[in-house]
């Protein structure tokens, strides 16, 4: 296989440059092995805990890389994006680090905690409808008005390259690895990881995991070209977006397989990550693990890593039951 | 100050030996910085995430060190202990690693998840009343019957030394540190950490944090000798036990100060650890952070580390609200 060749939007060198560029501004997240889960599933399981990343998601990597890659002249005019949440907060944070303006379009059904995160970096989001088209149109208008550079949540090459640094760290952290599970929404994280892994260690299998309720990447792989989403109601809000035109060719060329997971399975994976791994995963952050759980028998005795892509979860009105040792909330 | 002198139950050398002895059997847990919490509290905050340790608590360290320190002859007769939970699971695990029997006494009000954890290592706990006296008596009987070695949850020197390895790692992980917050129940973790820190970096302030509802260490420091608990109902179930006769002299000699925290404050700290740091802390595991939150103004601009001592929390009948992005449970 010819991996990460020039025909793709990014190369291994882009990811290595990104690693240098973002080092001072991102968390080198831990790869955490788990005995209880490993015993239960019959394989050696490690979680790459991007929920412990700044802004609570891997998105901090791509956003910092994109913003720090801009020329001084371009940077001065600011950056603009559209995102259901974590990329929005990540871009607001990255822009603040460089001291430049950020314009952020968010779907009106974004989670309140993600809206609050954007505001915490001094940026007031502009709201729009949930479809890809509505998001892109609102961002394009803001871009025209401001002259800011569009930092797309997954199509911008510097964003994909930044997300790919997850894989470089993982290869340094886990010496023997057979398989890696990665969630796919727009495909930026998956594309970045695929280019890194298949360039350096092509024998490691990389599996995409996608909610059944957001199965556009599965349909795109079957059709041979990017297909739009048909619904926007998966609990995994970060994966409601359709796979990108620039990420898809990388995924199509390099991914080993794709697993679809049910809503039930995503919720159950979140719970296991909390109870057994003591980490908070948001629904999208638990999707890759759901893919492993549903297919564990295929990986018996193997060493597998699972990306927990984000951990931004609103505990709402929950309180902790006294002497009951449970999280409890009003119904 | 003469630190960690021979008059104490353990020395720095004991902790360094423990670090070697347990290295292959424990997680080198991450020290995780957090921008959101640091900004809110006005100091640089890092969490030493012992909730990500095997058995979900620092107790894995002391138990492995104690079991691996036994002679072959003593080991053959097994180990015995009493514990409200995490030490019980940790000892069962350590005994299994060495292939020896473990006898475990647990208070009958121990949390179900902690009882299940002991059973998962093939050990059936013996239940008793919640007072220190009841626990000690039941363990003594088992010890007499079996000839097993008592591995006390905090009084055994090898246990204290094992827990002290948390501090050795922390000093390697965080180059500049002004203060460290540590929960205190029986005092094994606190004593081990105090000996390590005050031997190597005496300028770092070490603060104990204790629930108001389990204030025996505060009263012991005021009285100059170990005082028994007066109640056993704090939500921080791991800290209901009284401070030890062997841990107390170390704490008395070396601790910089002790903070008491309310039940409300513990629950609020758990929630912030989940929402802002994306980690699951059990109530005892959130106590040290509650101590920092209540006293943050004293640490403005400083670099502080907080031990999250454990993460074993039962989510009971909780489910995750669809599209509400919250954990929800029946009331």
Structural write-up:
Chain A has 331 residues and is of the alpha/beta class. Chain A folds into two domains: 12-57 and 157-308, Rossmann fold (3-Layer(aba) Sandwich), CATH 3.40.50; 59-150, Rossmann fold, CATH 3.40.50.1100. Helix content of chain A is 43%, strand content 15%. Chain A is built from 13 helices and twelve strands. Chain A has a six-stranded mixed beta sheet with strand order 1-2-10-7-8-9, with helices on both faces. In chain A, β7, α9 and β8 form a beta-alpha-beta unit. The longest helix of chain A has 17 residues, at 157-173. Chain A starts with 11 loop residues before the first helix and ends with a strand. Mean pLDDT of chain A is 92; it is low at 321-326. The interface between A and B is large, with 52 and 52 residues.
Beta-strand percentage range of chain A: 15-25%
Order of helices and strands of chain A: HEHEHHEHEHEHEHEHEHHEHHEEE
- Biggest interchain interface, per-side counts: A-B, 52 and 52 residues
Query: Strand order within the widest sheet of chain A?
Result: 1-2-10-7-8-9
* Major sheet attributes of chain A: 6 strands, mixed
CATH topology of the largest domain in chain A: Rossmann fold
| Oligomeric organization of the protein chains | homodimer
Give the second-level CATH assignment, the architecture of the largest domain in chain A. Answer: 3-Layer(aba) Sandwich
Return the average pLDDT of chain A rounded to an integer.
Answer: 92
Number of helices of chain A: 13
Helix content of chain A: 40-55%
Structural class of chain A: alpha/beta
């Amino acid at each position: 296989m010819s991996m990460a060749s020039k025909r793709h939007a990014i190369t291994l060198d882009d990811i290595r440059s990104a690693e240098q560029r973002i080092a001072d501004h991102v968390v080198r997240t831990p790869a955490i092995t788990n005995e209880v889960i490993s015993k239960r599933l019959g394989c050696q399981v490690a979680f790459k805990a991007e929920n412990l990343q700044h802004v609570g998601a891997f998105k901090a990597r791509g956003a910092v890389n994109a913003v720090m890659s801009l020329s001084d002249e371009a940077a001065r005019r600011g950056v603009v994006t559209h995102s259901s949440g974590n990329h929005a907060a990540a871009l607001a944070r990255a822009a603040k680090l460089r001291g430049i303006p950020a314009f952020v379009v968010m779907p009106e059904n974004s989670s309140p905690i993600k809206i609050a995160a954007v505001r915490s970096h001094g940026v007031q989001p502009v709201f729009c409808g949930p479809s890809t088209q509505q998001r892109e149109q609102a961002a394009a208008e803001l871009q025209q008005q401001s002259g800011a550079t569009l930092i797309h949540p997954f199509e911008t090459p510097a964003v994909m390259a930044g997300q790919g640094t997850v894989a470089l760290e993982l290869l340094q952290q886990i010496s023997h690895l057979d398989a890696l599970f990665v969630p796919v929404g727009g495909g930026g994280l998956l594309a970045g990881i695929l280019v890194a892994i298949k360039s350096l260690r092509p024998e490691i299998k990389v599996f995409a995991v996608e909610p059944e309720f957001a199965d556009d990447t599965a349909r795109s792989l079957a059709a041979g070209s990017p297909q739009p989403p048909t619904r926007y109601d998966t609990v995994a809000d970060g994966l409601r977006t359709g796979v990108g035109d620039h990420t898809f060719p990388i995924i199509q060329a390099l991914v080993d397989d794709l697993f679809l997971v049910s809503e039930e399975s995503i919720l159950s994976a979140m719970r296991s990550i909390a109870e057994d791994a003591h980490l908070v995963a948001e629904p999208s952050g638990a999707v890759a693990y759901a893919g492993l759980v549903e297919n564990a028998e295929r990986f018996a005795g193997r060493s597998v890593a699972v990306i927990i892509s984000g951990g931004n979860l609103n505990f709402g009105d929950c309180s902790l039951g006294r002497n009951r040792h449970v999280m409890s909330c009003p119904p």
